[in-house]
Write a structure and sequence with these properties.
By secondary structure, the chain is an alpha+beta fold. The protein has ten helices and 20 strands.
């Protein structure tokens, strides 16, 4: 089984590991609640080097991508990226990802479990375009929480510029290329840091050496997942797949340009915007009791199946089990009472609530 390059560092900090697809990653560092609280109150650091990343380069890269993705690549500048999707002809989601323009090409951030499929899909459309897709030899850290900017500045001696969501910058740190992207996955102020893989262990240790006064804590998969759910952030393989239209997931304003021109699936999403609606919507569910439903658990109103759960966990912020899931459009109103069938013998009651569950206050 594949392991993270710096597996031993995580193990030394008490990491408990589990297999995520084809790689062993930290599930938690002994207490997921402490990890969660560190993000909400201070800062936490997570090794996301296992996530998918590509550099899409070549003289035709911009034209090639612009004709395929749902968003307008021309709105990605030297300091800001975009969120976009690849769609089928029927408007269903093949992939979602972020794109950031670098000097050598576009950095694509994509869910690990969907990375190879995304690459294969792009390559099928390459034809005679002069485009290359490569994997950079970079590790990736996520630093999340209200103290994250201060910690970066303190650790690296690097004053951060004013940054909006999905903005980024490049600097040289200890003679190596360093890329910093501001993009929230937890609902807090989150930064994604790229650095050469062979130097990432040293960077990890630097952060923890400087971060003691700021209560820095390592962050594993379990806490990160509930933070994502509270923030209402869809994830490919859970909320997103080839059966879902972006409008159903509520991400259309982020990923679709209705003015850029043609792309696969454009006619479908434009028709929905102009004339119609979708039959189901991604919604929040607040559930009674302590049972956590799994992906695919069916949602009912009365005896009628009206949807299914995509992600769920116990929310420290809400103080109960919460879930994201798809429900019929006419029922996707806060306060609608539902029940979730966890298994043949277990059902839990709940209500539809607005997403996100958690939203940072100024």
């Amino acid at each position: 089984m594949e392991q993270l390059r710096w597996h031993d560092l995580h193990q030394a900090q008490g990491a408990q590991f589990f297999k995520e697809l084809d790689i062993e990653i930290p599930k938690n560092y002994g207490d997921p609640l402490k990890e969660y609280q560190a993000v909400r109150e201070h800062a936490a650091l997570s090794d996301l080097s296992y996530q998918g990343k590509f550099i899409i380069s070549g003289p035709d890269a911009q034209t090639f991508l612009q004709g395929l993705i749902s968003n307008d690549l021309l709105s990605a500048t030297n300091e800001k990226g975009i969120y976009a999707t690849l769609l089928t002809a029927k408007g269903k989601t093949v992939s979602d990802f972020y794109l950031f323009p670098l000097p050598e090409g576009y950095l694509m951030e994509v869910e690990r479990g969907n990375a190879e499929k995304t690459k294969d899909h792009l390559m099928r459309f390459r034809l005679r375009s002069k485009v290359e897709i490569s994997v950079p030899s970079w590790g990736k850290l996520l630093i999340a929480g209200p103290s994250s900017a201060s910690l970066i500045e303190k650790t690296l001696g690097l004053p951060l510029p004013d940054m909006s969501e999905q903005s980024f910058f490049e600097k040289e740190v200890d003679g190596e290329r360093f890329i910093c992207i501001k993009r929230t996955v937890t609902g807090e102020t989150d930064f994604h840091l790229y650095y050469p893989t062979e130097k990432m262990g040293h960077l990890w240790q630097q952060f923890f050496s400087e971060g003691k006064a700021l209560h820095l804590h390592p962050l594993g998969y379990d806490a990160l997942e509930i933070l994502r759910i509270e923030a209402g952030k869809p994830r490919y393989g859970m909320e997103l797949n080839e059966e879902v239209i972006p409008v159903e997931a509520g991400i259309q304003d982020e990923v679709i340009s209705y003015s850029k021109g043609c792309f696969p699936g454009q006619e479908v999403v434009a028709r929905i915007k102009t004339y119609g609606h979708v039959n189901r919507l991604l919604s929040g569910l607040a559930l009674e009791g302590k049972v956590v439903p799994v992906n695919g658990s069916e949602v009912f109103q009365g005896d009628k199946k009206v949807g299914w759960v995509t992600s769920a966990g116990h929310s420290p912020f809400i103080g109960k089990v919460v879930a994201m899931g798809y429900v019929r459009r006419e029922l996707a109103n806060p306060g609608t009472e539902i029940r979730v069938k966890v298994d043949d013998e277990t059902e839990v009651l709940g209500k539809v609530v607005s997403l996100p569950f958690y939203q940072k206050t100024a």
